[in-house]
Amino acid sequence: MAKRLRIAVQKSGRLSEISLSLLEECGIKLKNNGKGTLLASASNFPLDILYLRDDDIPQYVEDGTADLGILGENVVAESGVIVKTLKKLDFGRCRLSLAVPRNVDYQDLNWFNGKRIATSYPNLLKKFMVENHIKAEVHTISGSVEIAPNIGLADAICDLVSSGSTLLSNGLKEVEILFKSEAVMVANQNIDAAGLQILNKLLFRLDAVMTAKNNKYIILNAPNESVSGIISVLPGIKSPTVVPLAAKGWSAIHSVLNEEQFWDVIDDLKSKGAQGILVIPIEKMIV
Ligand code: ATP
Ligand code: ZN
């Protein structure tokens, strides 16, 4: 039978949808993508999808039940498994932080000495405590950590934060960041040569999709005498395309811009005479 790879993704939760749409954007079509299935296979790529709780993914990838996995770096680090991190995926950003009741006059880490801290991340918390010479009692609980201080179960918590609104609505404030995380693709250490060939194809597609997301196609019009000034602020992949407009003395300039440079460059372009600026998303980009 032809070689296939198996990738574990979160069954239902914050990462599920984006993980699957990322695979879809890579041109991978899933046959039986119904909820409730454990395994779905791609019809047009040698890949099978295994739907799991995110906490189970590290173990499955380490022991080779799955070849690949998409999950938060926080879960990989907490599990302590040995897997290869292949690629940061630019979503699911969050941080593991210590938070205390809002009314605490918090000065520094010494505050935690002798306190009880509730968390679902005992390993990362204990490591941090050792590194920072804090002696506190760690209470491991599996969910709703943020209510622990209110019900008297703990003095503080160590939990994932993204916007901070959950902390706020529970009367807590974030005081220390232990770990910064985003979704990553991890792989088993011992994928064979046939598997690596499939993996390289998948990584190539992922690169194309992610590079495209970080770039925009830009088209603008300018009087011919402004063209060289505008080109000097537009990098383009090789160099910008300049084409004449039907109106005499005018040109259109096409280029590709990195999302991060975007707003800075736009102001520059306007002041150099650009008009009718269009910014268009790119679907795939191979550089
Ligand atoms: P499962 O049922 O799969 O165990 P879960 O409840 O453990 O799900 P989710 O809450 O869906 O997990 O979070 C999955 C991942 O999303 C986290 O491990 C983390 O990497 C990322 N994440 C991003 N922002 C947040 C946030 N504000 N709170 C929690 N997780 C976040
Ligand atoms: Zn989980």
Ligand kinds: adenosine-5'-triphosphate, zinc ion
Kindly give the count of domains: 3
**How would you sum up the global shape?**
flat
Q: Name the CATH superfamily classification of the largest domain.
A: Periplasmic binding protein-like II
Helical proportion, percent range: 25-40%
Terminal Cα separation, in Å? 34 Å
Mean pLDDT over the full residue set? 95
Main sheet strand line-up: 2-3-1-4-11-5
Q: From N to C, what is the helix and strand string? A: EHEEHEHEEEHEEHEEHEHEEHE
- Uncertain residue ranges: none
Major sheet details: 6 strands, mixed
* Structural Rg: 25 Å
Judging by the overall fold, what is the CATH architecture of the largest domain?
A: 3-Layer(aba) Sandwich
Q: And the CATH topology of the largest domain?
A: D-Maltodextrin-Binding Protein, domain 2
Name the descriptors.
single chain; 287 residues; alpha/beta; D-Maltodextrin-Binding Protein, domain 2; Alpha-Beta Plaits; six-stranded mixed sheet; five-stranded mixed sheet; 8 helices; 26% helix; binds adenosine-5'-triphosphate; binds zinc ion
Short description:
The protein is an alpha/beta fold and 287 residues long.
